[in-house]
Each structure stands twice: as structure tokens, then as C-alpha cells.
Amino acid sequence: MADSDNPKKAPATQAVSGGRRKQWTEAVVNPPVWRASTHLYDSVEDLKTGLKTNEDGRFFYGRRGSPTQWSLADALSEMEPGAAGTMLYPSGVAAISSALLSVLNPGDEVLLTDSSYDPSRSFADAFLKRMGVTAHYYDPMIGGDIAELFTDKTKAILMESPGSLTFEVQDIPAICAAAKKANIVTLLDNTWATSRFFPALEKGVDISIIAATKYIVGHSDVMMGAATTHKKYWTKLRRTAQQLGQVVSPDDAYLTARGLRTLEVRLKQHEASALTIAHWLKDRPEVGAVLHPALPECPGHETWKRDFLGSSGLFSFELSKGDEETRAAFIDALSMFGIGYSWGGFESLALPVDPAKYRTATNWTLTGPLVRLNIGLEDPDDLMADLAKGFEAYNKAQSC
Q1: Which residue among 66, 86, 153, 299 is the one 20 to 30 A from 241 at the CA level?
Q2: How far is C-alpha 277 from the geometric centre of its chain's CA atoms?
Q3: For 73-120, what is each residue's pLDDT tens digit?
Q4: Which of 17-21, 41-45, 181-185, 297-301 is least confident?
Q5: Residue 343 near residue 331 (C-beta atoms within 8 A)
Q6: pLDDT grade, residue 48 (50/70/90)?
Q7: Whole-number Å distance between alpha carbons of 290 and 311
Q8: Of these residues, 63, 231, 239, 305, which one is catalytic?
Q9: Strands 109-113, 134-138: pairing kind
Q10: Is 189 a catalytic residue?
Q11: What is the pLDDT of residues 140-177, one digit of tens each?
């Protein structure tokens, strides 16, 4: 629950002070870790009173949280102007799936961007299909023309901007405006930007979702998801999460809140280093396209420039020639980039990605193999030297 009585603060101040009201912290800097499944009542009458309330700050049972979880939810709500509350989940995928289940019923249709994160597609194509919900995919560059896809069964739109593999930036305000006219709920996977770089609710989104595993945690050691919404959908979101038994551990909530305190300085460094490396890659003869929203050639760049307050450390680039084997040679030669899923941590990662196989509404047009980079907090000069070694291995593999 957001503390609306506090005056608006700068983002860096919000990240440091959010969720640290005395109600949660008492006399210490960080909210303590409350490990408790059972909450005790003073009397049977108090027990009955507890059954009548359902909000953060009211003890009930461990599944509804304690000050450790409540303070984190509070902090995330404060960072999203217009928020009524935030629910926490044990992963980003759990946040996406639970949020969709809170607004969809059998017989409904949901629209998803064709650049969707693969687990989102899997949930829509398998689980939602089993419960009688039909998923349709749309061109991420469709903008307000998405209204042409609406039917009387369309009840929700799941957006992801930019796409986490291909980085198209959608016109979220135009899509949300069209959806509101048709009384369709809009949900956004806002993990890449967070509310720091894209205040989703202010831009018209109904439910803003983040895999807090990434930039909020920042240290690659906790799984966490969050969904933040305004008053209209808050009760639905909260009740669905509780009915599904969604709960996060207080230890994970504590670590997530600790990561949040340094979000501002980390995001600035991720942004600066990623831009340095993206521009460097543009000049490499081995590189075809660089898919970074802050670069003019990235689809939706003008929308990014209009709507976003910054860029993060995740982007992709196309190798101008070669195949899976030469791409593997490039990645395997890197020593400062780990090979692994996820992103947003302090360490750099490189991942081979093949978006064509996930597309159903649009065709993927780039022909060279794609590599996704998470630019961490290492010195960018060291990272570029490491990438140069990768290109040496790539060129050697090309000549064989």
C-alpha cells in the first residue's frame, strides 16, 4: 500500500526510503526479518476481527505476510505513481500468471505481443488454453491499431516493452487508450525498465508486472515477482494471489528490499556501460544490427525517446554472418560474460537467442544469429576487450 501522505520524492530517495515507515522498522534502519507462519491473537474476539480485514499491516496468518513483506510491497507501490497496492510473488512468471488469472475467465480472449517472453507464451498457450481462454498474438509495433483485433471476447492485453529478446518498443499509451475504450484490461511486463525508467500506471497501464529477480534484487541470488495496480483491479489481484496461495519468504523479501536501496546507482551504471558497448558493437565489422532501444535503428526508438526516462543494461545484437556454431565459438571464448538465463544482476551474461521460432503473428527478418547481452557492473573497457576476444574466436571459426 502506497503512503500517499508523503510528498513526491526523487527516484533515488524513493529507492532508499520506500517501505521504511516506523510501522515496519521500529527503531532500526532495515525492516527486520519476521519469520512466522502462525500469528497469535489476544482473544477469540480479536480472532473474529482478523477475519473481517484483509490488508497489509494487519496480522492474520503467515500466508498474508508480515512487516518484512509488507514493507517491500509498500516501497514498490510508492515507486509507481497512482498505485493502490503491490502483490509479491515467488517469481516473475508467478506474477504474470497470477495477474492474468485475476482478470480472465473461461471463454475470454487475451492478446499478447508477439515479442513476449517465452514463459508468458507457454502459460497462455498451455495453461490458459486448458481453462478455456484463447490467446492471440499481435505485432509489437501495432500501436493504436490493436483495436482492429478486439472482439467482444477480448478481455486483456499482455504487453512487454521492450521485448526481452528483440527489443521492439511498443506504443504503450496508444494501446492502453484503445483498450480503455473497449473496457479491456492492460498488463505490462515492465521488467526491463522498472518503474524508474517507465512509470507504467501513469502511461495508462492497469497492472504493471516486474520480475524483481532482475534489477530490484540486483545480485542474482533471489527469485521474486511483483504486480502493482490501481484501485480498480487491486481487490481482484490481491484475492487471486491469496486464493492461489502465492507467498514469498521473509528472507527473500528482505534481500529484495536491500537490493532496492541501490537500484538508482546500479541502473545508471548498467545504462552507461550498455550504451558504451552498444555503440562499440555498431562499429564492429562482425556485427549486423544492434537492438538497443536507445539507438535509432531499434524498432520503436522514437517511442522509447518519447516515453522512457532511460535505458537498462539488456540488449541484443546480430552477427552479420555465421551460424549456430560460429555464434557458440564467440560466446564460449568469453571469460567475463557468464552463459545463463536471467539478467539485471551485477555480472555480465551472454546468451544465444533464436526469436524466429517463437513468432506466430510476425516474421523475424534478421538473418544472422542473435546474441543477447546483459551488461553488468564491470568496467566496460574490460568487457569490450573480452568481446574482442570473442570476435577473434568467431572469425577463426568462420575461416575454418
Answers
A1: 153
A2: 22
A3: 999 999 999 999 999 999 999 999 999 999 999 999 999 999 998 999
A4: 17-21
A5: no
A6: confident
A7: 14
A8: 63
A9: parallel
A10: yes
A11: 999 999 999 999 999 999 999 999 999 999 999 999 99
138 catalytic? Reply is no
Q: Using DSSP, state whether 138 is helix, strand or coil.
A: strand
214, 266, 327, 372: which one is catalytic?
A: 214
Catalytic residue among 74, 189, 206, 307: 189
Backbone angles phi, psi at 198, to 5 degrees: -150, 95
The sign of the dihedral angle between the CA atoms of 164, 184, 178, 363 is positive
For the chain, first and last CA: distance in Å? 60
Query: What's the grid cell of residue 169?
Result: 518498443
Cα–Cα distance measured from residue 77 to residue 286, given in angstroms and rounded to the nearest whole number = 44
Report the alpha-carbon distance of residue 304 to residue 298 in Å, rounded. Answer: 10
Matching residue, cell 557492473: 377
Annotate 206-238 with DSSP letters as a single string: SEEEE-TTTTTT-SS----EEEEE-HHHHHHHH
Half-sphere exposure of 257 (CA within 13 A, CB side): 29
Residue in the block written with cell 558504451: 276
Half-sphere exposure of 23 (CA within 13 A, CB side): 16
> Which 3 state secondary structure label does DSSP give 104?
coil
What residues does 281 pair with on adjacent strands? none
Residue with cell 546474441: 371
Closest-CA residue to 383 (of 343, 335, 351): 335
> Reduced to 3 states, what is the DSSP secondary structure of residue 319?
strand
Instruction: Check 21, 74, 89, 117 and give the catalytic one.
Output: 117
Q: How far apart are CA 377 and CA 313, in angstroms?
A: 9
Q: Which amino acid is at 387?
A: L
Q: What would the grid cell of residue 333 be?
A: 571464448
What pTM was computed for the model?
A: 0.94
Beta strand ranges found along the chain (DSSP E): 85-89, 109-113, 134-138, 154-160, 185-189, 207-210, 225-229, 287-291, 314-319, 349-353, 370-374
C-alpha cell at position 81: 505513481
What pLDDT score does 18 carry?
86
**How far apart (Å, rounded) are the C-alpha atoms in residues 59 and 24?**
12
